[in-house]
Amino acid sequence: MVKFFISIYGGILFIFLNYLFLQLLLGLFSFRHDYPLIKKQLTAKQIDPELFYFIIIPCCNEEAVIARTLTQLCQLDFQGKIIAIDDGSTDQTAQQIQTVHNDKIHYLKRVLPNAQTGKGEALNHALKICEQIIQQKHLNPNKVIIGVVDADGALSKNSFNVLNHYFSNPKTIAAQLRVKMYPQFENTLQISQDAEFFTIINLLQNMRMYTRTVGLSGNGQFFRLQPIVEKIGHQPWGNALLDDYELTLKLMLQKIPIDYISHAWVYQQSLKNMRAYIRQRSRWAQGDLDCLKYLKPVLQSSALDFWQKGGILLFFIQPWLNFMADIAVFGLFLLTVKQVIFILIARHFNLAIINKLVINIVVLFVSSSSWGVLFTFLYHYDLKHNHEARPSKKYLLRLPILIAYMYLILFFSISIAFWRHLRHKSSWIKTKHE
Q: Which residues of the chain are modeled with pLDDT < 50?
């Protein structure tokens, strides 16, 4: 039984470590060679003056954060409109939106029973309003850029300079900004989320630039309107709980490239407590399961190459791999406890058995935790390089263990996701912002 669990865990660890090594290698290569080139090309003469942005902010009970988000966006220099859509809020969200006075803000309100039917539905409704404004203002849809920012989000000060550079190139259709947590950290859990997005996912997205599998996030996604409407339709977002990746799949199946922008980012709140974290990740895991309906189109698609299909399939099987890895770890733990109890009761110390258990545990611990140490180092470097606030040393010392073994905590998220998916429960498990 011990060999069985070790074989399962070892096989899954081998898959993850090889994939992590590849993303680390290509991600670092991309950062060192592509970033200076892009930075040099950011010149005013390359910016298209006709670019017009619609920043859509879906809101449902966001009274604590929406005014701050709108105020921050209004302070940035861009040509466009901010579409704040109140999706049936029962708190003071509407009043908070209306406290921010700026001509750029366009307020929408959805009411029940049409409201609270999913983030994708709210975004599609807002897009319909955007198209009406485009007709009224006689804007060129090919110069219109649609962006999505969460109600707790904030764009870095250089975001629109970078976006203008990208979308002035007519070949750019969609782009995803880097994601970062606000630097007001109170515990290691919050810092682990920042390290995950700002460093680990950043490396992964950089690697995806080479394999053409960049994924959109729910926060900080941007696309050119005309080609999206022509190839996907007027309602691009679907009803999956992972609406961003569903849109990613739609774009990839239509051979629409997605670029990743690592030198401008969107801030969002990190979660302070483990319960909220598990709930959020259960929604993401269930959203992954929702997207399995695209498995057959992906496998049959002639538009996707080997690397693209491989990247999508790896994304699809991640919840299953995580679940199996957790079962293997818990199984090994229980067998170890059972063996220790047996030794203590029988008072028969079999050195061969003890040595075997110790060696297995040490190998698994070192192979897992070493990646936590490596990513902590890279995270610290990223913060320093990009002039972002760095956490105190006491948090950084705890961070490697949390990064390395977060998947054990996510076992509960994945279990909830599978249970809800099997019971066909698709209600939105909303993250509460403060």
A: 35-44
